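STRUCTURE:
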């Protein structure tokens, strides 16, 4: 067993996460081997298990990092919006762009990995930093998408349940699956997506704000 200093452990863990991110994004979970990750980092396969119990644990850690990065991106983007209409449009456009450009985000939200990960995090009961991180992570989505509560409280949306508003936003992500299919004619996806976003935002609010 390799002995690492705390600084070395932190460095190797970060490198494993970075290598895992690149390989999982490029090849997917099934086609990525632990040896691919360890070769990229320059450690032995057996050393990997000093950091993660399995390839699945590394994969989930990578997805959690991607989820947190997306939430930071959303938080920053929405902060620049000046009206509820702009907030809603920004949330939709930012999330759709991430889903289309980042295969890991697509696997999280379109393939449903987000639910598996958050269910697993919810089961963490160990005391200490891990539990603290769990509680913070689980509240992040509601914190980032707090706008639906505000819209409902102000009475400016036609839907009186903020969870339904969030569900509506999540459901729009699945439209990206039609991009490369006969359902959407070649070259027409972008204007269709734009029209869909504009229609949803216009229909969501009672009046212009």
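SEQUENCE:
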């Amino acid at each position: 067993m390799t002995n690492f200093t705390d600084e070395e452990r932190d460095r190797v863990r970060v490198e494993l996460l970075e290598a895992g991110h690149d390989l999982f994004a490029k090849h997917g979970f099934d086609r990525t081997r632990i040896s691919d990750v360890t070769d990229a980092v320059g450690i032995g396969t057996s050393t990997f298990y000093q950091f993660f119990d399995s390839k699945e644990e590394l994969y989930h850690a990578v997805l959690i990092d991607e989820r947190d990065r997306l939430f930071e991106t959303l938080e920053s983007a929405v902060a620049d919006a000046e009206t509820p209409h702009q907030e809603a449009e920004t949330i939709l456009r930012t999330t759709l762009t991430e889903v289309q450009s980042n295969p890991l985000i697509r696997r999280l939200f379109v393939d449903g990995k987000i639910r598996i990960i958050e269910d697993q995090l919810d089961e963490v009961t160990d005391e200490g930093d891990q539990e603290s991180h769990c509680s913070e992570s689980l509240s992040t989505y509601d914190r980032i998408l707090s706008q639906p509560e505000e819209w409902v409280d102000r009475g400016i949306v036609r839907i009186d349940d903020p969870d339904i508003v969030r569900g509506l936003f999540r459901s729009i992500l699945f439209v990206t699956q039609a991009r490369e299919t006969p359902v959407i004619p070649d070259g027409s996806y972008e204007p269709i997506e734009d029209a869909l976003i504009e229609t949803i935002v216009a229909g969501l609010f009672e009046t212009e704000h």
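REMARK: Residues 15 and 41 are 6 Å apart (CA to CA).
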